[in-house]
Amino acid sequence: MRKLLFSFLALIATVFLTGCGNDNSSANAIDKIKERGYVLIGVFSDKPPFGFIDKDGKNQGYDIYFAKRIAKDLLGDESKVKFELVEAASRVEFLTSDKVDIILANFTKTEERAKVVDFALPYMKVSLGVVSPDGEIIKDISELKGKKLIVNKGTTADAYFTKNHPEIELLKFDQNTETFGALLDKRGAALSHDNTLLFAWVKENPGFTVGIQSIGNIDSIAPAVKKGNEVLLKWINNEIMSLEKEQFFHKAYDETLKPVYGDSVDPESVVVEGGKI
After folding, report:
1. Does residue 12 carry a pLDDT above 70?
2. What's this model's pTM, rounded to 2 decimal places?
3. Which is nearest to 62 in space by CA: 276, 274, 277, 272?
């Protein structure tokens, strides 16, 4: 009887400690970042002007501009951020496996993704577009029937066309460099991606046109954290709301996107302040 009692108490203690451990992993998320001395943020390396590596090997872009501000306000120094390079299909895995604290990689919020990660307030708007060669511009989705459409695996474009247009053959790649390389090599009739990216890409690649500038609904781009990381999620939301006072994301647009877009894109079609769409 005495042994049975001790076994029961040991079991209760194990359950209690395990529960405490789970609570602490969320409650101490910010403390752990501060103890580590830097915040781990997942970003793209091949999606200019949002997240890319410049000729000097440094991370640059709209997402990077925001990431540095997070490091500054969280740790007192914008240099206290370590960038982990991700691909579209690996963004969720980097969060669930604790490889990063935050994903800032042009992450479009969707119902499916929201089941496995937690999204903060948005800081950008986006919709899908389709780019094709000037000689054979695709102006309507119906023109893609029987042709190959190039997309990135795990992106909104991949999900949208897989669900809504099974009659269109998709040619999928992991990295943007592979995807756009396939378009340049004429392995597909067109390429679908975020229209904000396509507007920038055609500026640097004469001979191509965004024939379909917007497909479906306007979506939101938002930071993401591991599911259940409520403390860090709340901190990011408060950060986004507080930055509205200084119109931070308009400044980020002027610094990183306007030099690429010029006057061809209305900032209000892209920028979100205070998390308000």
Report:
1. no
2. 0.80
3. 272
